[in-house]
Amino acid sequence: MTDCTLITSIGTGMYKKEGGYRETAYLFGNGKTYTSKLFFEAILKTGFKPIKKVIFIGTYTSSWDILIDDKTDSDLWTKVYTEINQNGLCPASNLIPLIKEHLKSRYSVEVEIFIHTNIINFDTTEEIFSIYNSVIPCIKEDSNILFDITHGFRSMPILMYQTLQFASSGKTKLQNVELIYGEYIENENISRVRDLSNYWHYARITDAFSVFKTKLDGFILSALLEKEYESYSKVINKISGIVQTNFCLQIIEVLIQLKNVLTENHETPPFWFSEIKSFLADFYKKIYSSKSEARTIFNFAKYLRERDLNTQAIISLQLAVETACAEKSDNPEKNKGNYDFWQSEGKITRKEVISSDCGLKRQILNLESFRNQIAHGGAKGNKTNASPSSESIAKKFDSGAKGVETFLSKLGL
User: Fold this and answer.
1) What is the rounded radius of gyration, in angstroms, for the C-alpha atoms of the chain?
2) Which DSSP symbol is given to 322?
């Protein structure tokens, strides 16, 4: 079983008249119960997860004293309680190592403590977010995360949640993240343990889907769909790979696969999956053309340009011309994507189409020249001796697209 790191927060407790946190019986989904003032203790004592490390977050004035068993170490409890009530427990306090050692001995887990200001508002969130971000390196890359949002000021779990999201979207690879909450039910006199892990899943889906919609980078989305929607996962991964590698000729095969995938029926799918399916259906509708493969690749180029995937768009635009010439050859299947064919027979076909139209000739030849500059890392043009500019791509694409539209029409494609 994969080790787990527990992240939990410490506040001051709502029930001052009872001396801080109220003692309650925590009832887990598996039927186990444990009575304690603090939820993290119930998690550890019931063996709910294989916790190897506990990370506590709190403020200068949090009830850190409640972590100390005053029956076994009354001296430490008194010192912590006194310091909290006098000046607050600051990150540099020499009591923190003692608290960590006490907890390690008591619960047989590794312990980390992160403390920040008790003033949580607009002016301090950046400081707190920075402190929470320093929590991430304390978590092993192969460790799952159990995030307890029961205690602490309401803003603390929110900021920590955002920190985990931030880390998951960057280079740090987080494993499975589960959210858990001990909800006190007054009329039952117990605290039911609520599993809120789907919140994390929805957040990951939302972010991943947004990236896929805007930039056709669906690798993370594909991984999130793999278990429940394998066929959709595979097609999204292939689309993303095509965009990443500029293998735009392969879009034809993927569209065939996508068409079949879209016919699959799923009983009562979640709303977010329906949105993903709708997006893919629209993707297919906008790109696929029954007229020709060249027209399909041309549509793909325009779709890429709409998402500012400019170099991929220019390459696809030029490929539409080359594919059109191959489709008009004696052996289209052999000649599509065949560089030797393009250099010999393909360019002859192109010349026949554009030679009588000076405007079209300029558009089509300029497109290939610009594509070559892109393919060679922004090389200078042979005639102009000038380097290409990223700011000019939109204009270059628009001119090339007009030429390709005319070119395809002249070939009946």
Assistant:
1) 30
2) H
Q: What values do phi and psi take at 53, rounded to 5?
A: -145, 140
Task: Tell me the pTM.
Answer: 0.83
Tell me the per-residue pLDDT of 313-328, one tens digit each, with 9 for 90 and over.
999 999 999 999 999 9
Here the tokens at position 251 are: 């879009």
DSSP state of 342: I
What would the two tokens of residue 313 be? 């768009």
Q: Can you tell me the distance from the alpha carbon of 314 to that of 272, in angstroms, rounded to the nearest whole number? A: 32
Query: What is the mean pLDDT of the segment spanning 105-122?
Result: 91
For residues 142-161, average pLDDT: 86
Burial string for 367-377 (b: 16+ CB within 10 Å, else e) reads bbbbbebbeee
Pick from 82, 331, 302: nearest CA to 319: 302
Exposure class string for 131-168: b at 16+ Cβ within 10 A, else e: bbbebbeebeeebbbbbbbbbbbeebbebbbebbbebb
